[in-house]
Write a structure and sequence with these properties.
- This protein is 21% helix and 26% strand.
- By secondary structure, the chain is an alpha+beta fold.
- The protein folds into two domains: 1-47, no CATH class; 50-98, no CATH class.
- The strands form three sheets. The protein has a two-stranded parallel sheet with strand order 1-2.
């Protein structure tokens, strides 16, 4: 179990009466942590680094930084894969220009 999981497990226990959405900055971009939260049935939003790769169904993996995006524009991707490791679920992703 990672240090992040240990901390989050305590918070989840303390706030079990509430519907939680875990929000994490780039240090939380770990796919194993996302998978663990998904198995805990918890919603989450993690900011990703530009070099993080993702894959839409039937497509090749590509870095997030390769998506052409302009200020004020958002693109939403559903059911994408963020790792080439087997056994991890698919997640939704939003890419936005600041």
């Amino acid at each position: 179990m990672t240090e992040q999981q240990k901390v989050l497990r305590s918070v989840i226990r303390l706030l079990k009466k509430y519907k939680l959405v875990i929000i994490g900055d780039r240090e939380f971009h770990n796919v194993e942590l996302a998978h663990w939260l998904h198995k805990q049935n918890k919603s989450f939003v993690f900011r990703q680094k530009k070099d993080t790769t993702f894959c839409e169904k039937g497509q090749k993996f590509q870095p997030l930084g390769g998506i052409e995006i302009y200020p004020g524009v958002r693109q939403f991707y559903t059911n994408v894969n963020f790792t080439q490791k087997r056994g991890f679920g698919h997640f939704n992703s939003e890419v936005s220009g600041l």
